[in-house]
Specification:
The protein is built from 9 helices and 23 strands. By secondary structure, it is α+β, with helices and mostly antiparallel strands. Among the domains are: 131 residues, DNA methylase specificity domains (Adenine-n6-DNA-methyltransferase TaqI, Chain A, domain 2), CATH 3.90.220; 128 residues, DNA methylase specificity domains (Adenine-n6-DNA-methyltransferase TaqI, Chain A, domain 2, Alpha-Beta Complex). The strands form 8 sheets. Strands 4-11-8-9 form a 4-stranded antiparallel sheet. A 4-stranded mixed sheet has the order 6-5-10-7. A 4-stranded antiparallel sheet has the order 16-22-19-20. Helix 3 packs across helix 5, helix 5 runs antiparallel to helix 9 and helix 7 crosses helix 9. The longest helix is centred in the middle third of the chain and has 42 residues. The termini are close together.
Length: 392
């Protein structure tokens, strides 16, 4: 790569190389929206198969019929990730047999333009000024057509796309490695939570077949259970200096539910939080003092229970089944009655160490993925603006 000096021009979408053009999307792609067709869940169930059925942000089902059978770019029409374009895609590419519903625009780049370059120009593009609506955001086809793209000469398009595609291939490879590591951990848990380590005698219990010297106890018997309370603004202070901050977790799963910071802790380290509303039953080990708000259930295990062991056991073996017509909700009282298998403490610690090693491997792989994603983001910022030119 090399930087060319004094060869740039100002345009309505910013400064770009003089030999690049600004072209409306309607001149770069054919829009095939007239061919898409929505199917409701009962219709899809009646023709279940292995052909992807796509919506605004990705695949939503599989059926046995198709509309398209070629490489295409899909871009959300409504419900897209438009406000989160920097971190989540607003467009994605597909290939092979497919069916697309009415929540995604269907784009086919014209032969004068490189398919992958057009995709990368759209994947994380800021198009907020073309979006309508406040609750259910929508990109109308008329506005879609007017989105301006930065278009280099074809050979440069191809070279830029090749560089970004190489990074995407590396991300895809690490994704497969992460998935395999997660499957291996899942298999480990299945074996360890039913057979333990080195046992030859077993018994049948309410939680399944387990080693003979293990016990079955309710969650309230293995620790103190509390429920996160409403946010107390008197002790919530986001301007606290780092050394005085105590993390506060909410019921959300995203980012492990990190909400903000308190000026003091409510719960001791080596505790467990469990989501109690919406997507219930997700357990997280907390190795620091913390606060909790919302329908977040907190368990502080007794001294003879390893919190890492119990966190993994809950995530793998406990089915918090709540029958409700509204939003699923798990109360502290309900959670306290669920049964868990408890080995002697030394065996718990051995199992916890094995699973922690598996987690460390997954975390290392996730860090590698994050580094590749950061690399791709940096390359896109440089290459798709012409700030750095590729050698053609």
């Amino acid at each position: 790569m090399k930087v060319l000096q004094d060869t740039y021009k100002d345009t309505k979408i910013g400064r770009i190389p003089k030999d690049w053009d600004v072209i409306k999307l309607s001149e770069v792609v054919d829009i095939l929206n007239n061919k898409r067709k929505p199917l409701n869940s009962s219709q899809r169930n009646s023709i279940s198969g292995d052909v992807p059925y796509y919506g605004a942000n990705g695949q939503v089902d599989s059926i046995n019929d198709f509309i398209f059978n070629e490489p295409l770019i899909l871009m959300a029409e409504d419900g897209g990730n438009f406000s989160e374009y920097e971190f989540r895609h607003i467009a994605y590419k597909i290939t092979g047999k497919s069916w697309v519903n009415n929540h995604a625009h269907v784009l086919k780049p014209k032969s004068d333009f490189d398919f992958d370059y057009v995709f990368y120009e759209l994947e994380h593009k800021n198009i907020l000024r073309f979006i309508n609506g406040s609750t259910r955001t929508k990109l109308n086809q008329g506005d879609l057509k007017g989105i301006p793209l930065k278009i280099p000469p074809l050979q440069e398009q191809q070279k830029i796309a090749a560089i970004l595609s190489t990074v995407d291939e590396q991300i895809s490879t690490i994704d497969k490695i992460i998935e395999k590591s997660k499957e291996l951990k899942k298999g480990l848990m299945q074996k360890l939570f039913s057979e333990g380590i080195g046992h030859t005698e077993f018994k049948d219990t309410k939680v399944g077949r387990i080693p003979k010297d293990w016990e079955v106890k309710s969650l309230e018997e293995v620790g103190l259970i509390k429920v996160g309370r409403d946010l107390n603004k008197e002790i919530y202070n986001p301007t606290l200096s780092k050394e005085h901050k105590v993390r506060v977790y909410s019921n959300a799963i995203t980012d492990r539910g990190l909400y903000g910071f308190y000026s003091r802790s409510e719960y001791p380290k080596n505790s467990i939080t469990i989501t109690g509303r919406g997507d219930i039953g997700y357990a997280f080990a907390r190795n620091e003092e913390f606060g909790a708000i919302g329908r977040l259930i907190v368990i502080h295990p007794n001294s003879n229970v390893d919190y890492i062991y119990l966190t993994n056991y809950i995530n793998h073996s406990v089915n918090f089944h709540i029958e409700t017509s509204g939003i699923p909700q798990l109360t502290g009282v309900q959670a306290s009655k669920y049964k868990v298998a408890i080995p002697p403490l030394p065996e718990q610690q051995k199992i916890a160490a094995i699973l922690s090693e598996a987690d460390a491997k997954i975390e290392k792989e996730q860090i590698q993925k994050a580094q590749l994603q950061a690399l791709k983001k940096g390359l896109m910022q440089q290459l798709l603006t012409g700030k750095k030119r590729v050698k053609v």
